[in-house]
Design a protein that fits this description.
With 538 residues, the chain is of the alpha/beta class. Helices cover 41% and strands 15% of the residues. The strands form two sheets. Strands 1-9-18-17-16-15-14-13-10-11-12 form an eleven-stranded mixed β-sheet, sandwiched between helices. Strands 4-3-2-5-6-7-8 form a seven-stranded parallel β-sheet, sandwiched between helices. Strand 11, helix 10 and strand 12 form a beta-alpha-beta unit. It starts with a strand and ends in a 9-residue tail after the last helix. Bound molecules: ligand NPW, adenosine-5'-diphosphate and potassium ion (K). The site of potassium ion has 11 residues, from strand 5 and strand 6. It catalyses: (6R)-NADHX = (6S)-NADHX; (6S)-NADPHX + ADP = AMP + phosphate + NADPH + H(+); (6S)-NADHX + ADP = AMP + phosphate + NADH + H(+); (6R)-NADPHX = (6S)-NADPHX. Its EC number is 4.2.1.136, 5.1.99.6. Keywords: ATP-binding, Isomerase, Lyase, Metal-binding, Multifunctional enzyme, NAD, NADP, Nucleotide-binding, Potassium. It comes from Collinsella acetigenes.
Length: 538
């Protein structure tokens, strides 16, 4: 796992490294060296380096100097004469570089900039880094859209200019990078908000050879899951296994209005490896589900007048639920009074429980006085997994619109977890980047494509999660990793389905059919990461 930092922690880390004897000036030299090596790997004959007023520009000036010494033609664009750069560190390296052979262009017009950009094979974006705030001001507000019109390969230093490195917000314009070389550790904004749209491939420039020894001295906003971290949760299928010992799931879901959600979740749970999946659904839709899923037993539970779980549902569902390795509750269920009772009842059982969709909306209503005052959630022994998207998470913490990006989602999930301190509770915060948040750690598994933003995609994820939990039989050391495995499978179903149907044409039912292939892809990536497979998969 690789840590992701908040900006204030990056500053703390720089200070710690400085106390250990490596100055910020030295870090800048290393940043420039690494930036130059990333550019060189593209084999350019001509490079354009765009610099700003601060130390991000300093990284660019150092890289320009090194690239020029390698017989690459380098043009450096600066908003002011190098001697007028306000940051002392950046001014020093800018004056040094300008004194050599690079071509320095101060304050070019848009046309001049476009001409330089058209000639360059690679453009280095060292305009704005972690010191950027608000919206880019001129001349950067002119440079950035101009660069985005060019076809040259763009490498951003630390963070694409225009992206807030903490929030991931782009207010006006932002460099669209092919690659971002982020210094010391990735900043959370690269993964949050608009970040994923602009960063391209993220590469980490570690800058300091003893980084491993000091990175633990600062708080981590989250950790990126590497493929190899998942290996313990990728299990085989022994010949002697039977349908029950493979793992069983009860899907408590559906209503007359939304039978499809129950079908998708149940089918996904089975495809994810559970040997026995059953559905408990209101009798108003049970026959529909039976017809759609011949391999799945369906328990018809008395409905209310609107075709949702009725008053008798709680005791019947809870009696059934005790027999399963995992219970998934919520998809398409509605928030009727009967549904609320089902959720309350399931919380009291000692069985691994996944609450998704309407089960979370029921929970928000049950927790009307504040989630921290809902002891049933925290008193449980068995794992409780919640899978909210941003709106559901906002409702759970009782504030409309409180959650709108990765950072606010992690904050809200931690508020819920820390209120009760249950280490059996994990919140999977779904969004363009999904965070798996537990009491001890926050993990970021591989994200899927935007094709996953389609109705029912979350039901499929809930099915994959419950199927995965059932097959693990609660033999889990790190729940956040086990759930990251399930989220990664869902992400890869998105890639596989997009390759088959086209990015915009994927629908949720397609994802289910790619679960097997996605599991194989995740396994291959894990084995490659651990060196057990080469890049050809041999
Ligand atoms: N972490 C590390 O250890 C290392 C970090 N390093 C590098 O340093 C970078 C951070 O440097 P930094 O702090 O100097 O900030 P940086 O991003 O260059 O920008 C500051 C300038 O931008 C200006 N500015 C702000 N907003 C603006 C706007 N909207 N529109 C226009 N201008 C705006 C701001 O002006 P002000 O707000 O002061 O008016 C100020 O002049 C970091 O990203 C990494 O690349 C490496 O050298 C190696 C070691
Ligand atoms: N832009 C995106 N990029 C990648 N994944 C996304 C994006 N938008 C949504 N997703 C993923 O798609 C799923 C949507 O889930 P959800 O909103 O619960 O859908 P539904 O309620 O329709 O089933 C989540 O797993 C989420 O992480
Ligand atoms: K930059």
């Amino acid at each position: 796992m690789k840590p992701i930092l908040n900006i204030e922690e990056v500053t703390r880390l720089e200070d710690i490294i400085e106390r250990e004897g490596t100055s910020k000036a030295e870090l800048m030299e290393h940043a420039g060296e690494l930036l130059a090596s990333v550019v060189e790997a593209e084999h350019p004959s001509r490079v354009l380096v765009l610099t700003g007023f601060g130390n991000n520009g300093g990284d660019g000036w150092v890289a320009a100097d090194i690239l020029q010494q390698k017989d690459i033609h380098v043009d450096v664009v600066s908003p002011v004469d190098p001697s007028e750069i306000p940051s002392a560190l950046a001014r020093h390296v800018a004056r040094r570089t300008a004194g050599r052979d690079v071509n320095v262009v101060v304050g070019p017009s848009r046309d001049e900039l476009m001409e330089l950009g058209e000639q360059a094979d690679v453009i280095v974006d060292a305009i704005l880094g972690t010191g950027f705030h608000g919206a880019p001001r001129p001349p950067f507000s002119i440079w950035i859209p101009a660069v985005n019109e060019l076809s040259s390969f763009v490498v951003s230093a630390d963070v694409p200019s225009g992206l807030n490195a903490q929030t991931g917000v782009v207010e006006d314009c932002c460099i669209r990078a092919d690659k971002t070389l982020t210094m010391l550790a990735p900043k959370i904004g690269l993964y949050s908000g608009d970040g994923p749209e602009y960063v391209g491939d993220i590469q980490v420039g570690e800058l300091y050879d003893k980084l491993d020894e000091v990175i633990g001295d600062v708080d981590h906003a989250a950790e990126i899951v590497q493929a190899g971290d998942l290996i313990d949760y990728i299990t085989g299928l022994p010949a002697s296994i039977d349908k029950y010992s493979r793992g069983s799931v009860l899907v408590v879901a559906g209503s007359a209005s939304y039978p499809g959600a129950a079908m998708m979740a149940a089918k996904a749970a089975a495809r994810a490896g559970a040997g026995y999946v059953a559905v408990a659904a209101p009798d108003a839709c049970a026959n529909l589900i039976r017809m759609a899923l011949p391999s799945v037993p369906v328990h018809a539970i008395p409905s209310d007048s609107r075709g949702a779980f009725g008053a008798a549902a709680r005791s019947i569902v809870c009696e059934l639920a005790k027999k399963y390795d995992c219970v998934l509750c919520g998809p398409g269920m509605t928030t009727s009074a009967g549904c609320m009772q089902v959720v309350t009842g399931l919380l009291e059982l000692d069985v691994p429980l996944v609450l998704d969709a309407d089960a979370l909306n029921c929970l928000s209503r049950i927790a009307i006085d504040g989630i921290e005052k809902t002891p049933d959630m925290y008193r449980r022994e068995a794992p409780l997994i919640m899978t909210p998207h941003y709106r559901e998470l906002s409702r759970l913490v009782g504030e409309e619109d409180e959650v709108y990006d990765l950072g606010t989602a992690i904050d809200a999930a931690q508020k819920i977890l820390w209120a009760g301190g249950s280490d059996n509770m994990v919140i999977v915060c779904k969004g363009p980047t999904t965070a798996v948040v537990g009491v001890e750690r926050v993990l970021i598994p591989t994200s899927g494509p935007a094709s996953l933003a389609t109705a029912g995609s979350g039901d499929v994820l809930a099915g994959i999660i419950s199927g995965t939990i059932a097959t693990l039989h609660a033999e889990v050391d790190v729940w956040e990793l086990a759930l990251s495995y399930a989220v990664s499978i869902h992400s890869y179903t998105g890639f596989a389905a997009a390759a088959e149907y086209g990015e915009k044409s994927v629908i949720a039912t397609d994802l289910i059919d790619y679960i097997g292939e996605a599991m194989q892809l995740v396994e291959n990536e894990a084995l490659k990461d651990l060196g057990a497979l080469d890049s050809e998969g041999e």
